[in-house]
Amino acid sequence: MRPALLLLALALAACETATDTGTDESLGRLLVEDPASVTVVREYFSGITQPAERLITSNDEWARAWASIYSNRTPVPARPEIDFSREALVLHALGTSPGINNLIERVGVFERGVVAHVVLERYSERCLVITAIGQPVHVVRIARPAGRIVQVETRESVISCD
């Protein structure tokens, strides 16, 4: 009887630590888990004052997003060219935010959309830094998914100054 209980306990422990199977009911099958998404733009002071999360799949959408990001700057920097037949962009903006920055650390590309894993970074209360109110935005390049669903999973990270 004891070996059976031991096997049951081991099986349950294995289930608890099992990783994601790569499927999501709304998004379909996982196609690519991109741990090193290529940053196209990351700004702390942008012109996007409201929170936003977008999947950009056309040059027109990209032109509008770029104009929004740099609406507070003159001259506007040249917009990078993206091959939207093979690629897409994921945009994550925090809107007006005091002392918090965002970082898209990886993107899962599924059949019908993407899951962006975003880190919200802030300094510890022990840090002697001036808290600026910014409009953080991060845009990364990914393989183009077939769908347009965007889900964002966030976690917080506190920067220690010890």
Count of domain modules? 1
Span between termini: 53 Å
List the total number of helices: 2
Q: Sketch the major β-sheet.
A: 5 strands, mixed
Strand order of the largest sheet: 1-2-7-8-11
Mean pLDDT: 81
Strand elements, count: 11
Silhouette = globular
**Element-by-element helix/strand order:** HEEEEHEEEEEEE
Give the structural class.
alpha+beta
Query: What share of the residues lie within helices?
Result: 10-25%
Strand content: 35-45%
| Poorly predicted sequence stretches spanning 5 or more consecutive residues | 1-23
Radius of gyration, in angstroms, nearest whole number:
20 Å
Description:
The chain has a five-stranded mixed β-sheet with strand order 1-2-7-8-11, with no helix packed on it. A four-stranded antiparallel β-sheet has the order 3-10-5-4, with helices on one face. The chain has a two-stranded antiparallel sheet with strand order 6-9. It is α+β, with helices and mostly antiparallel strands and 162 residues long. Mean pLDDT is 81; it is low at 1-23. A hairpin with a 3-residue loop joins strand 1 and strand 2. The protein has one domain. Helices cover 16% and strands 44% of the residues.
